[in-house]
Design goal:
The protein has 150 residues and is an alpha/beta fold. Helix content is 24%, strand content 37%. It has one domain: D-tyrosyl-tRNA(Tyr) deacylase (D-tyrosyl-trna(Tyr) Deacylase, Chain: A), CATH 3.50.80. Strand 1 (2-15) and strand 2 form a beta hairpin. It catalyses: glycyl-tRNA(Ala) + H2O = tRNA(Ala) + glycine + H(+); a D-aminoacyl-tRNA + H2O = a tRNA + a D-alpha-amino acid + H(+). GO terms for molecular function: D-tyrosyl-tRNA(Tyr) deacylase activity; Gly-tRNA(Ala) deacylase activity; Ser(Gly)-tRNA(Ala) hydrolase activity; tRNA binding. This is D-aminoacyl-tRNA deacylase.
């Protein structure tokens, strides 16, 4: 699993002309699921996200996590994070999980984040063409990969 996590002051997802989700202060998470990802990857990654201290404390030091901040989370599925780009100029998606693997893991990821956050997590629409809008706060952008935990 790969994510791009962005600390935002606002983020929203549009599907067609319909606004699907909107959040205020928190995280926009773009989630890519690989063919060999599993429930263990979900568990490790969601705990890491919830514990991540990237919000400023009273001294202006990044020392607060999403729970301390009472922030929101918006998760958007993005298979293109699994792109292989070593050969030529056209990315390959061969390492991205098929729908029958990725959709249940996406659902589990969102549900587990919601459980750990103790409130609902907003979502994009799995498999849809989406327009994502955000105001990156900081900017703070962190990439994580469950295959590179060190």
């Amino acid at each position: 699993m790969r994510i791009v996590l962005q600390r935002v002051s606002h983020a929203s997802v549009r599907v067609g002309e319909r606004v699907k989700s909107t959040i205020g202060k928190g995280y926009l998470i773009l989630l890519g699921i690989g063919e060999d990802d599993n429930e263990g990857d979900v568990s490790w990654l969601t705990k890491k996200i919830i514990g991540l201290r990237v919000f400023d404390d009273d001294c202006g030091v990044m020392n607060r996590n999403i729970i301390d901040e009472k922030g929101d989370i918006l998760v958007v599925s993005q298979f293109t994070l699994m792109a292989s780009y070593k050969k030529g100029n056209r990315p390959s998606w061969i390492h991205a999980a098929r729908h029958e693997i990725s959709k249940p893991l996406y659902r589990l990821f969102c549900d587990e984040l919601s459980r750990l956050l103790d409130k609902p997590v907003d979502e994009g629409e799995f498999g849809a063409d989406m327009k994502v809008e955000l105001i990156n706060d900081g900017p703070v952008t962190i990439c994580m990969d469950t295959k590179n935990k060190e």
